[in-house]
Amino acid sequence: QVQLVESGGGLVQAGGSLRLSCAASGRTFSTYAMGWFRQAPGREREFVAAISWSGVNTYYADSVKGRFTISRDTDKNTVYLQMNSLKPEDTAVYYCAAGIERPGDYWGQGTQVTVSS
C-alpha cells in the first residue's frame, strides 16, 4: 500500500514556475514507477510525466516537453515536478500516481495549479 500527498500548487502568472512535490509513504517507494497527471475542468485526466523506479528513464507529454522536469529523491520518498514557462493551458488539478509497472495503481488527492494570463 502506498499513500501519496501532493503539495506545491498555487496561482502563478504565465511564464512563471512552480515545483510540485509528492510525498509517498511506505518502504517500497523505490520500487514504484511514479508519474504526474492533470485534469482541467471539463476535460479527461491526461498524462504529464513519468519516471521509472530507478530514476533513469523519464517520459513526458509532448505538451510539456522542454518545460517540465520530473525527478525523484529516494531518500526522501518524494517525487517532484518542476514546471517552468507555465501557460494558461497548464491550469489543472495535478495528481501524483504510483505503480509497479507504470503509474496508476495508487493516486494522490491532487493539487490545484492555476496559471493566469
General description of the model:
- The chain is 0% helix and 50% strand.
- It is mainly beta and 117 residues long.
- The radius of gyration is 13 Å and the shape is globular.
List keywords for this structure.
mainly beta; globular; 117 residues
Termini, distance in Å? 40 Å
Q: Which value, in Å, is the CA radius of gyration?
A: 13 Å
The computed structural class is mainly beta
| Residue share in β-strands | over 45%
Total helices: the number is 0
What order do the helices and strands come in, and which of them pair?
Blueprint: E1 4-7, E2 10-13, E3 18-24, E4 33-39, E5 46-51, E6 58-60, E7 68-73, E8 78-83, E9 92-99, E10 106-107, E11 111-116
Parallel strand pairs: 2-11
Antiparallel strand pairs: 1-3, 3-8, 4-5, 4-9, 5-6, 7-8, 9-10, 9-11
What is shown here, in short?
The chain is mainly beta and 117 residues long. The protein has no helices and 11 strands. It is globular.
